[in-house]
Amino acid sequence: MIKFLDIQAMNEAHGTKIEEAILRVTRSGWYLRGEETRRFEADYAHYIGCRHAIGCGNGLDALRLIFRAYIEMGHLHEGDEVIVPANTYIASILAVTDNRLTPIFVEPDAQTLQIDETLIEQAITPRTRAILIVHLYGRCAYTSHIGDLCHKYNLLLIEDNAQAHGCSAPPTFPRKGDHTQSTSPQGEVVRRARTGSLGHAAGHSFYPGKNLGALGDAGCVTTDDDELATTIRALGNYGSSEKYIFHYTGYNSRIDELQAAVLAAKLPHLDADNHHRATIAELYYRGIDNPLIHLPRHVDPEHNVYHLFPIFCDERDHLQQHLKAYGIETLIHYPIPPHQQECYKEYAHLSLPITEQIHRTELSLPIGPTMSQTKVQEVIKAINDFKLKDYPRITK
Fold it and tell me: What is the pLDDT of residue 353?
């Protein structure tokens, strides 16, 4: 059996550090808003390259808090439009509509799978106030053109970084601060900014299956904006920045000490884990050779941390059945796009053919920091063995 993602093995790889962290928290007698949270927030802010990281309950809350804080600060108002990628997980859209903002769906580029930068400007109206980019599958969605549009139209740039911990933007990204560095072929030092530090604010999820995963739900917001950080921290604490004094009608959305300690223990290993994912992805790109299977455009591993490895097949369900017979687990990300979900009936009239094609044909292969090359080769062989004649169509 080849698991889609072996979360147990992922945690066992750092088992001693995680156990030490858990024991430290249980013995401390302090379980919320303590030293473990402060340590992780500081470490993660430094890693991402922002002044602030504010822990919260989960990734959806992180995005909800960002939009709500901008409303409280007067930068957004009910009914304002937020440009969003049509191809995304529903949490990206929920965060917008929960705040009574209006999502404007923009199709993805079929090759990059990210929001199509060439379609954004035509979607901008006088009511547009923000662009939400989603680094889906672990791929960097930011482009310099998107940055230029935000500057031209004075728009907020919000990042959904739930799937891209450790991913980097192209080296031309013009941002000051603490960045990772690499050396160009000409020997020049190139500064790289990580996703989560590219816009005005970013939401992060630490769901257990993420590249940086907790032992339950957890999330955070990163930003360089001091006022935004203060507002988000208060909103996530019932609306209070001073005990029993409430400036906002807030939420209860706080990361707990246990999750913060576990995340702090795993953070130093994130880059190495991402590198292992990239190694697996390279094997897939080199090994998969089946005319029925389409792979997304290959990008530099610095700009893709391979949270998921999506492939596309017109006979996706048959392919999934075929791989299951080989003992290979796969998942679909995602079977129904947000605009066709029952909860968003008001958007059912939209025609988004590229998005709909992606959701109709996408299948995610096993990939993770503990997956062996032997298992990768088994997956490749099974995919290359897939033949449509083995799955005759059923006609009525």
Answer: 98
